[in-house]
Structure to design on (716 residues):
DNA sequence: TTGTAGGCGTTATCAC
DNA sequence: GTGATAACGCCTACAA
């Protein structure tokens, strides 16, 4: 493919072996080679053998670019995520990739860091590669991106989004109920006896920020607690975001006794920051996260969190692409996934409570 | 691309816009469109504007498959790793991908789980896609794979391997000195006063098993300790491998007082298993790992480990590919990366030592 | 400046 | 069974 910005490059020196080479070697026509390669009927056994040997000997592999060009179908999917270094995504991508591999598809991986320009660049790049389908987790404020994406969907290209709120007539959406999850988590803390609960919010441009904040608020309200604005700090999905958020919350005049973090990574960051401040978790402050990444069970204290079937969501994403390829006129739909509360040691009754009890 | 196993699929219903469509819309020839698109000189300003508008309006993006076919150059790289869910690899892949993106390249991601058949399948798939270069971390026992890979290299296709021991005339190798790293780690433990040190080995088929084991042995020998076979347990790079290994070692009649794990993940697994057995780290047993993944600093106790510049190694891998594309006759070379010992709280003097001292 | 011609490698459709 | 022909979309060269 070309990109005007890129350096000019020499092609490899030797030609790869083409179907013509094989045909010549086996002294048959190229369409015979093609037929043998694709196990089509109508070729005599001796010829078949001869061709097979030639294929073997010359290590012939058909040029997929040519095949795809002709077939108008590339057998590739584009996966656009914020960053593969966010431990939530490897499982998801692995799910996609495993499904893709079984169906003979390959995966293009793109990391956007949620930057609008990068998202659009990558989308164009994937379009250039004529990918058969798109799986994207994108910045919700990137309306230009969404416009292009939905145009693709309108033109019957399979598009799967991770948790986008905008519903498109054709694009599928993978979704977990973030509102309910946040509600559950807050409820868990309230039931433990916490009354001052902080929230380190997801990044405002992510798909989950509003839902989790809403669910959180709703739980407090339902159980008669007031939502104190100074307990809601804007945050993000990184360890640093968690450290910052926890540091801020711990510095409040009357600090919360529990914190719901944007995700497990932020929760882990929060714990490490609190340790640095000499605040013990969960004795002095409870911490909870979202995602149940592998590490959640292994940090100290192990994290209370909301588990979601990340790998299966990846698989489902690829399956949805196949499905849309098979019936291009099917309607987009929301695919919901169950989440569950996993209680571990990072949450406990607040100190006040325990002193009362003991 | 085709894979005989895969389902038959209908192509999307609507055609994408081609250069011909744009030419028609702007009432010029297709090569004028091409020239405008690639900012070539010799087009009058009004025409240029008109074409630009048509490109804009029709959302034209050149079909990269056709371009690549013609240019004999796909601007893609294949990345074949055991699994992106191993937290060592996201940083590495990110390094590759960032470099690739800057140069207008895209990345195919393949997870082999170190399974020889999968490795070969993926290699063929990448060949189909006519990737411009390969970055591979493969199972060293997979000689068939290596043969195909080195044939590619011989034919001037850029090949970068992660720590393969086999040196090929053209393939570059990214390497850290695993022998020295293991030596350093063992030395660190010995200097703390440990005399009974266990090793949870990397998987036998990985590139690092022999080197790390050798370095480990060499250190013990140099400092006059005997290498007890019951302290060397075969392991792997997962949390479970670490749990198993630590459980085994802890069950020895005379358990070691320190363990060097295959990597950080195994070390984290070891710590969790030991916690489960009521063995405190580092008080009763010291643990050390390799890689210095993000989590290493955040688990409890924070891990002593060997840091390596994973992201930069990924960047270097892509740069090496570009370099080989530019000068296809250049010789393969080994690119070495520095590692460093990071001492954290998971290693401490053995209990005996401390009781003597105090 | 623009049109015409040829080819990248593969596959499909004929008629032989 | 095979050979000829066309097409996928793009690009380069050469001629008009």
């Amino acid at each position: 493919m070309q990109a005007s910005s890129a350096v000019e490059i020499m092609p490899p020196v030797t030609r790869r072996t083409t179907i013509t080479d094989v045909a010549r070697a086996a002294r048959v026509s190229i369409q015979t080679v093609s037929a043998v390669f694709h196990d089509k009927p109508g070729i005599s056994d001796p010829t078949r053998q001869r061709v097979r040997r030639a294929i073997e000997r010359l290590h012939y592999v058909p040029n997929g670019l040519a095949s795809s060009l002709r077939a108008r179908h590339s057998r590739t999917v584009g996966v656009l995520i914020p960053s593969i270094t966010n431990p939530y995504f490897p499982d998801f991508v692995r799910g996609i990739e495993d499904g893709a591999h079984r169906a003979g598809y390959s995966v293009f991986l793109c990391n956007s860091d949620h930057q609008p320009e990068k998202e659009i660049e990558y989308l164009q790049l994937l379009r250039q590669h004529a990918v058969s389908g798109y799986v994207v987790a994108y910045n919700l404020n990137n309306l230009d991106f969404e416009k292009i994406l939905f145009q693709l969907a309108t033109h019957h290209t399979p598009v799967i989004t991770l948790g986008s709120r905008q519903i498109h007539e054709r694009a599928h959406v993978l979704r977990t109920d973030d509102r309910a999850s946040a509600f559950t988590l807050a409820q868990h803390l309230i039931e433990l006896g916490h009354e001052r609960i902080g929230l380190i919010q997801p990044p405002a441009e992510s798909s989950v920020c509003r839902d989790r904040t809403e669910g959180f608020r709703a739980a407090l309200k339902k159980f008669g607690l007031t939502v104190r604005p100074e307990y809601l700090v804007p945050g993000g999905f990184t360890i640093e975001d968690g450290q910052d958020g926890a540091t801020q919350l711990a510095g409040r005049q009357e600090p919360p006794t529990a914190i719901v973090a944007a995700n497990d990574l932020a929760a882990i960051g929060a714990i490490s920051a609190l340790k640095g401040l000499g605040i013990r978790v969960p004795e002095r402050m409870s911490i909870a996260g979202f995602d149940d990444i592998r590490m959640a069970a292994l940090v100290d204290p192990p994290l209370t969190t909301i588990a979601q079937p990340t790998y299966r969501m990846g698989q489902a994403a690829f399956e949805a692409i196949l499905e849309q390829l098979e019936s291009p006129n099917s309607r987009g739909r929301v695919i919901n996934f169950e989440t569950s509360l996993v209680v571990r040691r990072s949450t406990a009754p607040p100190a006040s409570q325990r002193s009362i009890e003991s």
In short: Residues 20 and 30 of chain A are 6 Å apart (CA to CA). Chain A is about 45% helix and 15% strand. The longest strand of chain A covers residues 76-81. Chain A touches chain B through 85 residues (CB under 8 Å).
